[in-house]
Amino acid sequence: MKLEQLQKQLGYQFENIDNLKQALTHRSAGAKNNERLEFLGDSILNFAIGYALYNKFPQSQEGELSRMRATLVREKTLAIIARKFNLGEYLKLGSGELKSGGARRDSILSDCVEAIIAAIFLDSEKNMDKVVERVWDWYSALLDEISPGDAQKDPKTRLQEYLQGRKLSLPSYEVFDIKGQAHNQTFKVLCKIQNLDQEFIGTGTSRRKAEQNAADQVIEMLKLKK
Protein backbone atom coordinates (compact mmCIF):
# COMPACT_ATOMS: atom_id res chain seq x y z
CA MET A 1 0.00 0.00 0.00
CA LYS A 2 1.55 3.27 -1.12
CA LEU A 3 0.80 5.86 1.52
CA GLU A 4 3.27 8.61 0.63
CA GLN A 5 0.75 10.49 -1.49
CA LEU A 6 -1.89 10.28 1.23
CA GLN A 7 0.51 11.62 3.84
CA LYS A 8 1.32 14.58 1.57
CA GLN A 9 -2.38 15.32 1.17
CA LEU A 10 -2.95 15.05 4.92
CA GLY A 11 0.00 17.37 5.56
CA TYR A 12 1.50 14.98 8.08
CA GLN A 13 4.35 12.47 7.82
CA PHE A 14 3.90 9.55 10.19
CA GLU A 15 6.82 8.47 12.36
CA ASN A 16 5.19 5.05 12.71
CA ILE A 17 3.32 4.19 9.53
CA ASP A 18 1.45 1.43 11.37
CA ASN A 19 -0.61 4.15 13.07
CA LEU A 20 -1.91 5.28 9.70
CA LYS A 21 -2.43 1.71 8.48
CA GLN A 22 -4.56 0.94 11.52
CA ALA A 23 -6.63 4.09 10.96
CA LEU A 24 -7.38 2.87 7.44
CA THR A 25 -8.42 -0.63 8.55
CA HIS A 26 -12.15 -1.24 8.91
CA ARG A 27 -13.39 -3.72 11.51
CA SER A 28 -14.48 -6.08 8.72
CA ALA A 29 -10.81 -6.58 7.77
CA GLY A 30 -9.47 -7.92 11.07
CA ALA A 31 -8.85 -7.52 14.77
CA LYS A 32 -6.46 -4.54 14.69
CA ASN A 33 -8.88 -2.04 13.21
CA ASN A 34 -9.78 1.63 13.55
CA GLU A 35 -12.73 1.38 15.98
CA ARG A 36 -10.89 2.67 19.06
CA LEU A 37 -9.09 5.34 17.02
CA GLU A 38 -12.44 6.52 15.69
CA PHE A 39 -13.74 6.87 19.25
CA LEU A 40 -10.76 9.03 20.25
CA GLY A 41 -10.73 11.00 17.01
CA ASP A 42 -14.38 11.97 17.42
CA SER A 43 -13.57 13.73 20.70
CA ILE A 44 -10.49 15.46 19.28
CA LEU A 45 -12.43 16.64 16.22
CA ASN A 46 -15.21 18.11 18.36
CA PHE A 47 -12.62 20.01 20.40
CA ALA A 48 -10.72 21.29 17.35
CA ILE A 49 -13.84 22.52 15.54
CA GLY A 50 -15.37 23.88 18.74
CA TYR A 51 -12.21 25.86 19.46
CA ALA A 52 -12.11 27.23 15.89
CA LEU A 53 -15.73 28.39 16.10
CA TYR A 54 -15.22 29.86 19.58
CA ASN A 55 -12.41 32.03 18.20
CA LYS A 56 -14.13 32.94 14.93
CA PHE A 57 -17.51 33.95 16.37
CA PRO A 58 -16.93 35.81 19.67
CA GLN A 59 -20.51 37.15 19.65
CA SER A 60 -22.26 33.81 19.07
CA GLN A 61 -24.04 32.05 21.90
CA GLU A 62 -23.61 28.40 22.88
CA GLY A 63 -26.63 27.23 20.86
CA GLU A 64 -25.39 28.76 17.61
CA LEU A 65 -21.87 27.45 18.17
CA SER A 66 -23.21 23.96 18.85
CA ARG A 67 -25.32 23.97 15.69
CA MET A 68 -22.41 25.11 13.55
CA ARG A 69 -20.15 22.47 15.07
CA ALA A 70 -22.78 19.78 14.45
CA THR A 71 -22.87 20.79 10.79
CA LEU A 72 -19.09 20.58 10.46
CA VAL A 73 -18.57 17.26 12.27
CA ARG A 74 -21.56 15.36 10.86
CA GLU A 75 -21.10 12.27 8.72
CA LYS A 76 -21.87 13.99 5.43
CA THR A 77 -19.22 16.69 5.97
CA LEU A 78 -16.57 14.21 7.07
CA ALA A 79 -17.28 12.10 3.99
CA ILE A 80 -16.62 15.16 1.81
CA ILE A 81 -13.22 15.57 3.46
CA ALA A 82 -12.52 11.85 3.05
CA ARG A 83 -13.23 12.04 -0.67
CA LYS A 84 -10.95 15.06 -0.99
CA PHE A 85 -8.14 12.76 0.17
CA ASN A 86 -9.44 9.79 -1.88
CA LEU A 87 -9.54 7.73 1.31
CA GLY A 88 -11.67 5.07 -0.35
CA GLU A 89 -8.63 4.02 -2.38
CA TYR A 90 -6.57 3.40 0.77
CA LEU A 91 -9.17 1.70 2.99
CA LYS A 92 -8.60 -1.88 4.07
CA LEU A 93 -11.95 -3.67 4.08
CA GLY A 94 -13.14 -7.23 4.48
CA SER A 95 -14.20 -8.99 1.28
CA GLY A 96 -17.92 -8.67 2.02
CA GLU A 97 -17.70 -4.95 2.79
CA LEU A 98 -15.55 -4.42 -0.29
CA LYS A 99 -18.08 -6.13 -2.56
CA SER A 100 -20.97 -4.14 -1.12
CA GLY A 101 -19.29 -0.82 -1.92
CA GLY A 102 -17.99 -0.01 1.57
CA ALA A 103 -15.19 2.14 0.16
CA ARG A 104 -17.82 4.61 -1.05
CA ARG A 105 -20.05 4.57 2.01
CA ASP A 106 -20.30 7.85 3.95
CA SER A 107 -20.35 6.13 7.34
CA ILE A 108 -17.12 4.20 6.71
CA LEU A 109 -15.36 7.20 5.15
CA SER A 110 -16.33 9.54 7.98
CA ASP A 111 -15.20 7.04 10.63
CA CYS A 112 -11.86 6.78 8.84
CA VAL A 113 -11.30 10.55 8.99
CA GLU A 114 -11.89 10.49 12.75
CA ALA A 115 -9.52 7.54 13.09
CA ILE A 116 -6.79 9.37 11.17
CA ILE A 117 -7.16 12.37 13.48
CA ALA A 118 -6.55 10.10 16.48
CA ALA A 119 -3.67 8.37 14.69
CA ILE A 120 -1.94 11.72 14.15
CA PHE A 121 -2.49 12.61 17.81
CA LEU A 122 -0.86 9.39 19.01
CA ASP A 123 1.90 9.40 16.39
CA SER A 124 2.88 12.98 17.28
CA GLU A 125 3.31 11.95 20.93
CA LYS A 126 -0.06 13.46 21.85
CA ASN A 127 0.76 16.89 20.39
CA MET A 128 -2.70 18.48 20.42
CA ASP A 129 -1.48 21.69 18.74
CA LYS A 130 -0.25 19.70 15.76
CA VAL A 131 -3.52 17.79 15.41
CA VAL A 132 -5.67 20.91 15.72
CA GLU A 133 -3.51 22.59 13.07
CA ARG A 134 -4.14 19.69 10.68
CA VAL A 135 -7.89 19.69 11.30
CA TRP A 136 -8.10 23.45 10.77
CA ASP A 137 -6.18 23.10 7.52
CA TRP A 138 -8.50 20.37 6.22
CA TYR A 139 -11.53 22.45 7.22
CA SER A 140 -10.22 25.85 6.11
CA ALA A 141 -12.72 26.34 3.25
CA LEU A 142 -15.65 25.05 5.32
CA LEU A 143 -14.73 27.26 8.27
CA ASP A 144 -14.54 30.26 5.93
CA GLU A 145 -18.01 29.57 4.54
CA ILE A 146 -19.92 28.77 7.71
CA SER A 147 -21.90 31.41 9.58
CA PRO A 148 -24.51 31.52 12.35
CA GLY A 149 -28.15 31.26 11.32
CA ASP A 150 -31.04 28.99 10.53
CA ALA A 151 -29.07 26.96 7.99
CA GLN A 152 -26.99 25.56 10.85
CA LYS A 153 -29.91 24.06 12.74
CA ASP A 154 -29.68 20.29 12.93
CA PRO A 155 -31.85 18.26 10.51
CA LYS A 156 -34.41 17.20 13.16
CA THR A 157 -35.00 20.82 14.18
CA ARG A 158 -35.24 22.02 10.58
CA LEU A 159 -37.67 19.23 9.68
CA GLN A 160 -39.86 19.90 12.72
CA GLU A 161 -40.03 23.63 11.96
CA TYR A 162 -40.82 22.91 8.30
CA LEU A 163 -43.70 20.59 9.21
CA GLN A 164 -45.05 22.84 11.97
CA GLY A 165 -45.05 25.80 9.60
CA ARG A 166 -47.31 23.86 7.25
CA LYS A 167 -49.48 22.41 10.04
CA LEU A 168 -48.39 18.86 9.17
CA SER A 169 -47.92 15.93 11.55
CA LEU A 170 -44.56 15.70 13.29
CA PRO A 171 -42.28 12.74 12.57
CA SER A 172 -41.93 9.70 14.79
CA TYR A 173 -38.58 7.98 15.28
CA GLU A 174 -38.22 4.35 16.30
CA VAL A 175 -35.01 2.35 16.81
CA PHE A 176 -35.46 -1.03 15.15
CA ASP A 177 -31.91 -2.38 15.02
CA ILE A 178 -28.73 -2.05 17.08
CA LYS A 179 -25.54 -3.87 16.09
CA GLY A 180 -22.02 -4.00 17.48
CA GLN A 181 -20.43 -3.94 20.90
CA ALA A 182 -21.28 -1.30 23.48
CA HIS A 183 -18.40 1.05 22.60
CA ASN A 184 -19.02 0.91 18.85
CA GLN A 185 -22.67 0.34 18.03
CA THR A 186 -24.58 1.08 14.84
CA PHE A 187 -28.18 2.20 15.26
CA LYS A 188 -30.95 2.03 12.67
CA VAL A 189 -33.98 4.27 13.11
CA LEU A 190 -37.27 4.25 11.23
CA CYS A 191 -38.74 7.71 10.63
CA LYS A 192 -42.44 8.00 9.76
CA ILE A 193 -44.51 11.07 8.90
CA GLN A 194 -48.26 10.63 8.76
CA ASN A 195 -48.79 12.81 5.70
CA LEU A 196 -46.08 11.12 3.64
CA ASP A 197 -46.52 7.65 2.14
CA GLN A 198 -42.84 6.91 2.57
CA GLU A 199 -40.63 5.63 5.40
CA PHE A 200 -37.04 6.66 5.97
CA ILE A 201 -34.26 4.61 7.57
CA GLY A 202 -31.43 6.48 9.26
CA THR A 203 -28.17 4.97 10.48
CA GLY A 204 -25.58 6.29 12.92
CA THR A 205 -23.22 5.46 15.76
CA SER A 206 -25.82 6.70 18.26
CA ARG A 207 -29.61 6.94 18.35
CA ARG A 208 -29.36 10.71 17.95
CA LYS A 209 -27.10 10.47 14.90
CA ALA A 210 -29.39 7.89 13.31
CA GLU A 211 -32.42 10.13 13.87
CA GLN A 212 -30.58 13.11 12.37
CA ASN A 213 -29.60 11.00 9.38
CA ALA A 214 -33.22 9.99 8.80
CA ALA A 215 -34.43 13.59 9.16
CA ASP A 216 -31.78 14.71 6.67
CA GLN A 217 -33.17 12.23 4.13
CA VAL A 218 -36.70 13.59 4.59
CA ILE A 219 -35.44 17.16 4.07
CA GLU A 220 -33.66 16.15 0.85
CA MET A 221 -36.82 14.44 -0.41
CA LEU A 222 -38.99 17.48 0.40
CA LYS A 223 -36.55 19.71 -1.50
CA LEU A 224 -36.94 17.49 -4.56
CA LYS A 225 -40.73 17.75 -4.33
CA LYS A 226 -40.71 21.54 -4.36
Q: Would you give an account of this structure?
A:
The protein has helices at residues 4-10, 17-23, 35-56, 62-73, 75-84, 95-99, 106-123, 128-138, 140-145, 155-165, 207-225; strands at residues 172-179, 186-192, 199-204. By secondary structure, it is mostly helical. The chain folds into 2 domains: 4-148, Orthogonal Bundle (Ribonuclease iii, N-terminal Endonuclease Domain, Chain A); 155-225, Double Stranded RNA Binding Domain, CATH 3.30.160. Strands 1-2-3 form a 3-stranded antiparallel sheet. A hairpin with a 6-residue loop joins strand 2 (186-192) and strand 3 (199-204). It is globular and about 60 Å long.
Give the strand line-up of the largest sheet: 1-2-3
- CATH homologous superfamily name of the largest domain? Ribonuclease III domain
Q: Tell me the β content.
A: 5-15%
Rg, Å, rounded: 18 Å
Count up the domains: 2
CATH topology of the largest domain: Ribonuclease iii, N-terminal Endonuclease Domain, Chain A
Number of strands: 3
Helix-strand pattern, N to C? HHHHHHHHHHEEEH
Class computed from helices, strands and strand pairing: mainly alpha
Helix-residue proportion = 55-70%
At the first level of CATH, what is the class of the largest domain? Mainly Alpha
- Per DSSP, the total helix count is 11
On the 0 to 100 scale, the average pLDDT is: 90
The second-level CATH architecture of the largest domain is Orthogonal Bundle
Q: Please report the distance between the alpha carbons of the first and last residues.
A: 46 Å
User: How is the main sheet built?
Assistant: 3 strands, antiparallel
The 3D shape can be described as globular
Give start-end ranges of low-pLDDT stretches. Answer: none
